[in-house]
C-alpha cells in the first residue's frame, strides 16, 4: 500500500486548519461583541437579566474543526427559567425526538417579581387552570426584540482592538445572528450565532446518557417532514458531554475537517455540522479507542463510507435523541442526490491508497482548500 494518499491527506489538513496567527483578531472582536450584546440585554430587560446565567461556545470552533479562518462563532446563552425545578420534559409526539417543556405544580402561590411574572405568563400562554407548553416562538420573539433594542442603543457599532465594527442582525432558525464588518477593512468580517438555551433542572426520564453534564433545551425549528407542527417543540443538547466525547481521539478531528472540506467542495450545503457530529458520536460509541489511532487515510475512508451508507439508508439519528432522524430535515431528492455524490466520491477515493503515483493535485481536487499550495 502506497503512503502517497496518507501524506496528501495530512498536507490537506494543514492547509484547511486555522492558523494560530489568524485567531487573535477574530477572537478579540468576538469577545467584545459578545460581552457588549449580552451585558446590554441584561440592562435592557430586567427579566432577561434575572434569567441569564452565562454563555458557552459550542459547535465547530469549540471542537476545533472550523476550516480556514475563525469567522463563524456559535454561542449558547443560558437561561434559567423561573420555577425551573417544576419544568417537566416530555417527548413531542408530533416531532419525533424533540421535546415539550411544561410546568407542573402550583405556580400561583410562588413569589415572583412583576417582570418575570409577565414574561412567564406570555411564554406558557396561561389559559385558566390549563397550562400549555412553553412556546418556542414567543421566547424567540421576546429575545429578538431585546437584541434589536440593544443594537439601536449602541448605534449598531462596536469598537474592538482598534477596529470599528458595524453590526447587522438577522434571525435565522434557532440562532440570533450578528454579522460584524470592519468599517476600514471590509474584508475583515465574521458572524456570531447566539442561541438561547433553557437550563433543564429536573430529571429527563427518557434519557440514559450524559447525565453527569447539564442538559439544555434550544428552540430549534426543524424544516422538512415535521414543518407543520406547533411552535412549542425544543431540541435537547448536551454540549459539555459532546465536547468530552470528541476530545482526545487522535485522528478524529483531522478526519472531521477533511469531511467538511470535501462537503464544501461538492456543495453539499444541507450536510450540516450537526449531522457529522452525530455520526462521529455514534461511531465513538461503537468503536474502540485504538480505531482513532489508525492511519488518517484508513479512518477517513471508513468514516466516508459510514456517511455514504447513512444517506443511502436515509437514517442518521440525532445522538442525544435517537427517535429524531436528522434526515427528516432534507427532502427526498436532496437525500438521493447526496447519496449519489458520496457514493461516486467514496469509490474514487477508495482506490487512492493503492496508487503509488498519486499526485497531490489529483487528491486535492476533492477538497475545498482556501490557502494556496
UniProtKB/TrEMBL annotation:
Residue span(s) of domain Mab-21-like HhH/H2TH-like: 253-340
Cofactors named for this entry: Mn(2+); Mg(2+)
Pfam families: Mab-21, Mab-21_C
Domain Mab-21-like nucleotidyltransferase stretches: 61-205
SMART domains per the UniProt record, alphabetical: Mab-21
Highest taxon above the source species: Eukaryota
PANTHER family listed in its UniProt record: CELL FATE DETERMINING PROTEIN MAB21-RELATED, CYCLIC GMP-AMP SYNTHASE-LIKE PROTEIN-RELATED
Record's protein name: Uncharacterized protein
Source organism (scientific name): Glossina morsitans morsitans
Organism lineage string: Eukaryota, Metazoa, Ecdysozoa, Arthropoda, Hexapoda
